[in-house]
Amino acid sequence: MKYIAVSRTDVLHGFLTAQFDRGDQIRFLVTAKQACDRMMRAGLDVRQVRIDGLGWLRQAEPAAGDVFIIYLPRPANLQRLVSQIVKLDVDCSVIPILHSHQQYELPESPRVRPVYTRDLFEPHGDRILHLQVTRSRVQAIRNHFADAERVLILLHDDPDPDGIAAGLGLRTLLGRKPQTCPLASYKPVTRPENLQMLADLTIDIMPMSEVDLSRFQRIAMVDVQPPYFGDHHLKVDLVIDHHPELRGYQAPFREIHTSYGSSSTMVTEFLRAADVEINQRLATALFYAVKTDTQYLQGTHHSADLESFFYLYARCNRRAISRMERAQLPAADIDRIGRGLLERRLVDGKLFVHLGAVQRDDVITQLADFCLRFEGVSWSFVSAVLEGNLVVAVRNVGYLKNAGEITAKAFGEVGNAGGRSTMAKAIIPIKPLRDHLGGTSTKALRDFVERRVIALNIDAET
To answer: What domains are there in the chain, each with its CATH number?
Structure first.
């Protein structure tokens, strides 16, 4: 889906580009040639159009779920364009921006959600437009899934709280029950705190080995994108994710917002925009997800994460949250962590720890988080062997170079690597490494990680 902004000049440019994520697609249709030229030089998706016929609609190239935002000085022109959009066969919505001192005769339709210029320039006017846009997107998504008898919500392998909670929230948004809309994953939950979450909130995740895809008319993914699964699911109906956008798949609805700290924040916004009740069970799941994925709002987060955090905090079961956070770590994993820490190396603010072979991914990531608390540490690089891969979890204190970019530069040539500004991960197949390094001993793998990182000459200073 995309946003289609229609105006006489470039008046909507600054307002909309500041309003939406950089990953959001905005097509500008303007009637003034000079404005079109300016926007074209700025690299925007812009077309000069005439609005006295239907040619402007062909330039818009509307598709299901698209949102039109229209600001025109003459009410007659605005009314005519809104009517043309409402009559479209494709399910698009429209947000006309109106002047309170003028009279408008707009078609009565749930697809029309007007806002007034006087409200947009109030202290929280940007939230008014954001709310109307979100309502339009949510309605389009719900319409798309409405006629499906069964819907599958697919999570990434070994789902974490954000995937679990976002999936639960999406099912609620669609008005579905587990029988007609199961959550599913190819690999089961293994982390103790996540298992505690499933137990406390009575959430079931179906193994994909038990799923007959032919029985599902719609497929949605949350906190993950289709290329994660290889060639298995390159055509889905909806993707909700806050990680960097991947290419090479088809989805009528892509809600990819990389500035958000969690996918659960997006789902919380959708639920609130649709006036869907968030009961205590769902609020607990969503709050725990926002809290963990934003590192208690200390990591990457958006103002929407902050708003959702406090909204959900007032409605969640805080005792259940405490039980999840106190989930026990097995003794064998504690031994691995102890051995790894004894052999740690600190090089110019960069701490390197290698754990050897582990059974669970969370041992690596939790230790990477913990290591940032050590004196003199600005970066932590914790590596381990897991399921035939060398996994490297990367963390920084939050005001240094981008962890995702550094990880991609260090390990992108040999594996799948990337992430966000404060946290990232690399997954490198062991088999090719064995030939490259002449072996995969603990020392060889530890040295490999250190060499790759140190060669980048990361400045560990603030």
So the answer is: 3-116 (3.40.50.720), 147-325 (3.90.1640.10), 331-454 (3.10.310.30)
